[in-house]
Write a structure and sequence with these properties.
Structural class: alpha+beta
Number of helices: 3
Order of helices and strands: EHEEEEHEHE
Radius of gyration: 19 Å
Helix content: 10-25%
Strand content: 15-25%
Distance between the termini: 36 Å
Oligomer: single chain
Length: 170
């Protein structure tokens, strides 16, 4: 990003930069990113941020952050973690190559048929129910915005948990 857009982002405000290929240091791996999550919250990030948001606005020169899926292409000799060739996800976002701390990589394995499926909203919906809300058996679940991506998944997850009632508002 060359400048924070005023109004809608336009192509002339962005540039693809070529930089030397980074090398992983101690406890790091080099990941070649294949997929990047584009989400509605990215718009305010590109626009300079929103006051009191849980994430900062992007500044000129910053890569866009959020979940990315790629393949480990190099590892430091001491790196205990994903191996070269292994698909991983991380939160360092949009760039062709990222040097990622081993602890910030999540190996994807073969649990889903396509690595890009790991960018879905399912983990967010599950985390909201199991970690954010800390629901207990017999409690009522209210899902507002249940027609959106996260809301639909949250509703489906809530139906499969032992709660007293599920209320959904679209």
């Amino acid at each position: 990003m060359l400048a924070v857009p005023d109004g809608l982002p336009r192509p002339e405000r962005f540039r693809v930069l070529r930089t030397p290929l980074p090398q992983p240091g101690e406890g790091e791996v080099l990941v070649r990113n294949r997929y990047f999550l584009v989400f509605p919250g990215l718009r305010p990030v590109v626009g300079g941020g929103v006051e009191d948001a849980p994430f900062p606005g992007a500044q000129p020169g910053d890569p866009l952050f959020r979940m990315a899926v790629g393949e480990v292409v190099a590892a430091a000799s001491d790196a205990e973690g994903p191996c070269v060739g292994e698909p991983v996800s991380h939160r360092l976002g949009r760039r062709e190559y990222a040097v990622v701390p081993v602890g910030a990589c999540t190996p994807l394995g073969d649990t889903l048929p396509d690595p890009v499926a790991h960018l879905s909203q399912g983990p967010m919906a599950y985390a909201v129910l199991t970690r954010g809300a800390e629901l207990r058996a017999g409690e009522t679940v209210f899902v507002s915005g249940g027609a959106g991506a996260v809301g639909l998944l949250r509703t489906a997850r809530a139906r499969n948990r032992p709660h007293g009632r599920l209320l959904r508002h679209r």
